[in-house]
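Sequence in, structure out. Go.
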Amino acid sequence: MNNSGAAGGSKWLLTGLGVLIALIGLGLAGGGGQLITTEFEPSKAQRARDNLAAGGLLDLVEIREGDALETLRSKLPEQIDLLLLDGAKGLYADVLALVEDRLRPGALIVADNADYCAEYVAKVRDPEGGYLSLPLPGDVELSMKRA
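Output:
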């Protein structure tokens, strides 16, 4: 699943750990990609590390512990292909603003329970905001960064 054209495979950024294993199975394991995730709760981060280690996948994932607005301030890939927002809903707009310049044109953003952050929804649905966005059933917002 390397549609980015970037060396080393796709670059994915995930807030929260809800679908971590599924994402790896979708393409990172065989494609040389990279996944960075951030988790506020240390026990959840440790559980993810344990599960990834048991599955032989720990080397594919960088788990950062703490507030996403701090853990994502540095050491990100030049380009991000997928941003999955599934952490603190109230931070979605702030996380997007933090990583926005790294999202490549065509990058996808999947935001779970997006309606809990009106500022985020307004940003991605604004016709002048640089995104194409579609609300999906289950309170998920699927957006794509325009060129």
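Check: Residues 11-145 form a domain with the Rossmann fold fold (CATH 3.40.50.150). The chain has one domain: 11-145.
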